[in-house]
Fold:
Amino acid sequence: MTLTAPLIAVVENDAGLLSALGRALRAVGFATAAFRSAEEFLAAPPTGAHCLLVDNHLGGMSGLDLQRHLRSRGSILPIILMTAFDDAGARDEAERLGCAGYAPKETDLDVLVRLIRSV
Structure:
């Protein structure tokens, strides 16, 4: 019996961080699908993703906008919002919109992995 690694869709507009997150997540046993924008994700969302790890500040549609969009269409895909600008307002909005988690970008990888596994 072959077990498939859980797929984490990562939406991040910083190419270096997107690549680093992908490498780090694959190193701890996840499969990843990388997207440079919310719009790119929406154009070709992966099938069977365990969760979506999305930056809030993407340049186009924000991570919170993506959460609103997906929920308005009935999606139940768990979303973990990442941000370099940790503030109470964004954290409260993420919770109000039903995000499964919230992680400042400087979050330790072990903490992020535990958060991903908890959703």
About this structure: The helical segments are 15-27, 38-43, 63-72, 88-96, 109-118. Residues 7-118 form a domain with the Rossmann fold fold (CATH 3.40.50.2300). The chain has a mean pLDDT of 93. The beta strands are 7-11, 31-35, 49-55, 79-83, 101-104.
